[in-house]
Design goal:
181 residues, mainly alpha, two-stranded antiparallel ribbon, 2 strands, globular
Length: 181
C-alpha cells in the first residue's frame, strides 16, 4: 500500500540534520567556553600587586598565561574585533575565524589527530593564531590589526605581571592539598 503525500522516514532521501550531533556540538561549545576562568577571579583587585623581582614577574607571567589562557584568547579576539569595526571585510573574515576557533580550539574533549599524529593544545593555539593574523593581514587592515595585537599583548602582559598567583590552582588536587595544609 502506498501513502501518497506522506513524509518519508527512510534514510534514503535527502540528508536530515542529526539533532543529537547538533546538541553535542552545542554542549561541547558550552563546555569549551567553560574552561575559561571566571572574570571576577581574573580581575580580583585583592590579588593585584607589583612583583618583588624580575624572576617573580616571569614566574607570574608563566603561571597566569597557563591559568587564564582561554580568557586571554577572548581578550585578544575582542580587541581585534573592536579594531575592525570600520573594516567590514576584515570583520567578516574575523567572524568566520571565530567560528573556526570555537570549532577547533574551545570545545574539544580530546586532542586533534592529524595524519595519525596527536596535536596538543599549544600547537593548535599557535597555528590558529598565525592563520588568524595572516588572513586578517590579507584584508588590508594591517595597521589596525598590528595596533590591536600590540594593545592585546600589552593588556595581557600587564595583567599577567601584576596578578598575584598565590591563589591560583591548575588542578583540584593542588587546591585540596593547599587547603588541608
Amino acid at each position: 500500500m502506498t501513502n501518497y503525500g506522506a513524509i518519508s522516514t527512510s534514510s534514503h532521501g535527502s540528508p536530515v540534520v542529526d539533532l543529537d550531533s547538533v546538541s553535542r556540538v552545542k554542549q561541547q561549545i558550552k563546555d569549551g567556553l567553560a574552561t575559561r576562568r571566571p572574570w571576577r577571579v581574573m580581575f580580583d583587585f585583592h590579588s593585584v600587586g607589583i612583583p618583588r623581582s624580575l624572576s617573580d614577574a616571569f614566574s607570574r607571567i608563566k603561571k597566569n598565561l597557563v591559568y587564564f589562557q582561554t580568557n586571554y584568547a577572548i581578550v585578544f579576539l575582542v580587541v581585534i574585533f573592536l579594531s575592525l569595526i570600520k573594516h567590514p571585510t576584515s570583520l567578516i573574515v574575523l567572524t568566520v575565524l571565530v567560528f573556526v576557533w570555537i570549532f577547533l580550539y574551545f570545545p574539544r574533549d580530546e586532542p586533534i589527530k592529524l595524519f595519525s599524529y596527536q596535536v596538543d593544545d599549544k600547537t593548535v593555539l599557535v597555528c590558529l593564531s598565525v592563520i588568524t593574523i595572516v588572513l586578517l593581514f590579507l584584508t588590508n587592515a594591517t595597521l589596525n590589526i598590528a595596533g590591536a595585537l600590540l594593545i592585546g599583548a600589552v593588556l595581557v602582559l600587564i595583567h599577567a605581571v601584576v596578578r598575584k598567583t598565590d591563589d591560583l590552582f591548575l588542578d583540584e588536587k593542588a587546591a585540596m592539598a593547599e587547603t588541608l595544609a
